[in-house]
Design brief:
CATH architecture of the largest domain: Up-down Bundle
Radius of gyration: 21 Å
Bound molecules: flavin-adenine dinucleotide
Number of strands: 10
Strand order of the largest sheet: 1-4-5-8
Number of domains: 3
Order of helices and strands: HHHHHEEEEEEEEHEEHHHH
Strand content: 15-25%
Shape: globular
CATH class of the largest domain: Mainly Alpha
Length: 393
């Protein structure tokens, strides 16, 4: 196996990027962190929060200003997801799915009419966006989906099927929906992407998922019962929708890496401050080599994950290939989040296992980053196939 030399531009954060980072950090500390434990306990999706994030320009942070967005760059958006996730990973994923998976595909593949009709509503926060790819029998192998889009005499389609694990589903104004439009196909080659409005007749929430963590985010099954979509709501080329899904995930994975990074950073911050205060055997536990080494290793892992994540974002901004780099960032950062949150519990001892401190929430929230937008096993396949020249997508 060969490795690709990185062509990532050298970068350090610009003043604008630092300003966004500071603004989101300040907002999150005031408005999100104090509520995160309660939202987790009560499984609260705070719809009002997203109106406030919209006022800060964060519902369309990297959407062009002509389409109602804030016109910031992709790394600014990554920094925002990192900071939000540091306060509450559920809020982080809500924004990540809304932006990367629901708004940017319309910016990239939408017709001008689609962009004008859909993007400003998403970028202003009037609508929250969803991405409906997965089904109960089609997750990693999403191309085997059963949801059908039957063509009608007028050129439109009627969508029938059930999508599973749909983030934001119960609150969404729009769904990028993937369905099989080409009869006789059973794989990714027969899939198209459609824009489906949240208030479409025949579209409903089937089941609200009970999850291990990420409780302030909304995850549901969506039922499509003969949902009518006009021909003008086909996104991109008919039968080429799977490519849109995969390229969307290329960018989305960078933001899931940022989410993992935010969770890991929060766990590290908690563990290191606790290690300075908690004393055993007459000295702070951070002075015991066993704990000091843990903290040192956690910090190195976090910085390595950060470098991979920002590198992937920089490549995307520069218009360079970033499939491998995004997958590398997500694979590594999600593992870091799992390991660092586990070690944070260890540093806090019994208190780490209690709800008195957020370490246990960080641990529960971290696990999902190894699963969605492609599991860690799938990231390894993506990386290896590209490096071996076996994937020509
Ligand atoms: C909280 C949450 C939110 C989500 N949000 C969304 C969303 O908004 N929109 C959406 O469309 N989907 C969403 N998903 C779905 C998510 O992307 C899938 O769960 C994920 O891709 C894995 O699919 P699966 O659950 O069907 O697992 P499976 O595909 O059944 O995989 C099971 C196991 O087998 C492994 N495996 C599968 N194939 C291979 C292979 N070829 N080689 C090696 N190992 C393999 C996997 O890595 C995994 O360990 C969400 C999921 C969750 C839990």
């Amino acid at each position: 196996m060969t490795t690709t030399p990185t062509t990532a531009p050298q970068f350090s954060l610009t003043d604008d990027q630092r300003d966004v980072q500071a603004m989101v950090r300040e907002f999150a500390a005031a408005r999100i962190t104090p509520n995160a434990a309660e939202w987790d306990r009560n499984h609260t999706f705070d719809r009002a929060l997203y109106a406030e994030l919209a006022e800060l320009g964060l519902m369309g942070i990297c959407v062009p200003t002509e389409l109602g967005g804030a016109g910031m760059d992709f790394l600014s958006y990554v920094l925002a997801v990192e900071e939000l996730s540091r306060a509450d990973a559920g809020v982080g994923v809500t924004i990540a799915v809304h932006t990367s998976a629901s708004t940017l595909p319309i910016v990239h593949w939408g017709t001008e009419a689609q962009q004008q009709a859909w993007v400003p509503k998403l970028a202003s926060g009037e609508w929250i966006g969803s991405f409906a790819l997965t089904e109960s029998g089609a997750g990693s192998d999403a191309g085997s989906m059963l949801t059908r889009a039957d063509e009608q005499a007028d050129g439109g389609f009627r969508i029938t099927g059930r999508k599973q694990w749909i983030t934001n589903g119960a609150y969404a104004g729009s769904f990028i929906t993937f369905a099989r439009s080409e009869p006789g196909t059973t794989d990714a080659s027969g899939v198209s992407a459609f824009l489906v409005a949240g208030d479409s007749a025949g579209l409903s929430v089937g089941r609200v998922e009970e999850k291990l963590g990420l409780n302030s985010s909304n995850t549901v099954d969506m039922v499509y019962d003969d949902v009518s979509v006009g021909a003008d709501l086909l996104l991109g080329t008919r039968g080429k929708g799977f490519r849109i899904a995969m390229q969307t995930l290329d960018g989305g994975r960078i933001t899931i890496a940022a989410q993992a990074l935010g969770i890991a950073q929060a766990a590290f911050d908690l563990a290191s401050s606790y290690a300075k205060e908690r004393t055993t055997f007459g000295k702070p536990i951070g002075s015991h080599q066993g704990i000091a080494f843990k903290l040192a290793e956690m910090s190195v892992e976090i910085e390595a994950a950060r470098a991979l994540t920002y590198r992937a974002a920089a490549l995307k901004m520069a218009g360079q290939p970033h499939t491998v780099e995004g997958a590398q960032a997500k694979l590594f950062a999600s593992g870091v989040a799992r390991r660092v949150t586990g070690e944070a519990i260890q540093v806090l001892g019994g208190y780490g296992y209690s709800k008195e401190f957020p370490a246990e929430r960080y641990y529960r929230d971290a696990k999902i980053t190894e699963i969605y937008e492609g599991t860690s096993e799938i990231q390894k396949l993506v990386i290896a196939r590209r490096l071996l020249g076996l994937d020509v997508r």
